[in-house]
Amino acid sequence: MRIAVVGAGPAGVRAVQTLVAAGHRPAWLDEAPDGGGRIYQRPPAALNRDAKMLYGFEAKRATALHDTLDAMKPRTDWRPDTFVWHIRPGVKRLQTLHRGVQAVVDYDAVLLCTGAMDRVVPVPGWTLPGVTTMGAAQIALKTQGCGIGSRVAFLGSGPLLWLVAYQYARAGADVVAVLDTTSFATKARAAFGLLRGGATFAKGLYYIGWLRAHGIRIDEGVTPVAIEGAGSGVTGLDWRDARGRAQRVDCDAVGIGWGLRPEAQLADLAGIPFRFDAIQHNWVPERDLAGRTSVEGHYLAGDGAGIGGAEVAELAGARAALALLQDAGAAVDAAEAARLDRALTAAGRFRVALERASPYPAHLAAGLPDDTILCRCEGLRVGELRAAAAEEYPAGRAPEMNRAKAFTRTGMGRCQGRVCGAAAAEILAAALGVPVDAIGRLRGQPPVKPIPIVAPPAEAVP
Amino acid sequence: MTTSCDVLIVGGGGAGCSAALHMAQRGQRVILLERGLVGSQASGVNYGGVRQQGRNPAELPIARRSHALWMRMPELVGSDVEFSVTGHLKLARNDAEEAELIAYLDTAREHGLALRMVGRNSIHRDYPWLGPKVVAGSFAPEDGSANPRLLSSSLARVARLAGAEIREHTKVTGFAHDGRLFRLTAEDGTEFSAPVLLNMAGYWGGAVAAAFGEAVPIKPLSPNMAVTEPVPFFIEPNLGVVGGNVYLRQIPRGNIIIGGGHGESDVSGGRAWARPLPEVTLEMLGLAVALVPSLVGVQVIRSWTGIDGQMPDRIPVIGPSGTMPGLFHAFGFSGHGFQLGPGVGAIMTELVLDGHTDVPLAPFRIGRWRDAA
Q1: Interface predicted TM-score (ipTM) of this complex, two decimals
Q2: Do A456 and B290 touch (CB under 8 A)?
Q3: What is the pLDDT of residues A257-293, one digit of tens each?
């Protein structure tokens, strides 16, 4: 049986481990040079930092995952630096790109562990040099040992806000402000549910406490106004505090981020149905607890199947591999499967509380001024998308997201809406006066990320 | 409950929406029924070439008629749908292809289509970015390109303003004639009736014709398309080749749209699923590099396709039904109907309301396969 696993983050590593233990030798494809996923992304060899410095509280977990990753490589068809840009569920084929060379991988069953990326809300000025996402700010620190600036403000919501601010401060950056768009009251209401999170919740409290203890300016329930700057970069950040008062801080870099969104393009191209998850406020591919989908032979695990975080991804990877093996007729450890199911169910409850404590600020996106850049790839402003909701728009009213894309080019650029899509949906839905889940989602189209045109071999051209 | 009108149109592509507009402008009560959103398939997701050069000579009178409408597009729909007269440069990559270009000059002259040869001495001087494989070209200065995502919906908007009813998400599942009126039933049970029915349903036009006893040998066709990231503008004309295995154009924003070959589709059980094929995409990119070598290193950001209907002789079915008075067909544009769409709507309106049109339609008659057999 030909099994393929896409992704070598927490979900992919545990999935492969389970498959190898059952005697399989899967094809294992990962976009990064040496696996680890975004959360445990490995630095280049030249960056001499120990795991504790790179991963903090997560060092033990990161090291364990890396050890398993390394142990599994020789027992699989390990293909690092390999980008899967298309999937054909009918003929069960992955289209891959490895250092400029195209290839295909045929499979009988595939497990997609494609991870997540930052979810953002545009802010006036967000295209200035020096503004980056929270996840990218963290990766710069983890894999390159550098920060996004020397006087850094962080703006957003969710666990990453506090973690990245903490990591930057510890690394020696001058963290000038940590601004949470979620109000203290919202978080307090979710606190009881968050207690389920145990260690995860405790770590979050620790970061916040540490930042406060070190005198770092923290403001909650903020409304971003603008990132200020000149052509050369960021010079400051303006916001209104919870009481509506104008606030400002000088800075040379801003990290922004409002949780994560699944990188689910391959699941989409595989024909797996999606649903709008109102708690996560994301479109997610439909799967059962074990990671099975309605498309035979196609399984999902990790954040690419709906945001759950790294610990959940490890559980889900192992569980989906068991589901795959079971469906292939293998005898699997039922007790282990049941244990994973219980752990995943419990983790799901904590995730609900976490999402409630840091909801996607849909109102901020919907309320953006017309002249704010929305789709940075295409240089489109918010007002250009809003206009497509009007009856008198020259091509007629765009009743849903893909039509709005077709009319305005929103989400048609290099990122294919991965960056602006979430906010664009809020803007269009608000302009149409309908709930955001009523306007659909940007459909996936190959390639899932850009691929270069290469010179064909001389004899191949007629 | 049955909704009645003067003219029912099935299919909201460029031709159907143009017919709705022209019919409404002449006072007809029109209802257009579209299975998805207007312009969702061949008319909306094609390459965007607005080209007369290289067409089957039988199509040229329609193309000429349509060209006149394209030139009036802002007046017709209130926007230019990004129609731009860039010229169309058709390239030859060997002697045989060059001979074909030369032979077509006479055809163009007969139909009043401006066309000039760009010979071996001038092709690389005039277009220094072309690769060495290119030996000659023929240039049609009136041709150009437009944004296919805007055409059908823009026509539909003004058709509505003119009084036409455009019903989207209305999939017709029942076709009947009661001796006096056509009776169409949508998937949700809604019924429509009219004395005149225009079948402009693209690939699905074959099923409409079959429902009235005149099946045709139509197949789904999914042209494979891709677009690059924006790069500095340098390719002014719309480019094609003899044989048509690759075509490309650059829009002023900088993106280069490349087409060639065919994707995959599934039309079974009422589905309308189509996808580009990766190996076809890669092959056409290779062919594109042979034309324009500096494309190497440019990133492809998206690929797509849709569903058109292809006839064995690669020209559409246009004209009255051979079995059912009041039924008129215009479908099966075989991958090159985008330019024709606006003109076809006007021609169909004349055919129905005036009983005749100046454009010769004999080559497109639906009975041509039966005649041959």
Answers
A1: 0.95
A2: yes
A3: 999 999 999 999 999 999 999 999 999 999 999 999 9
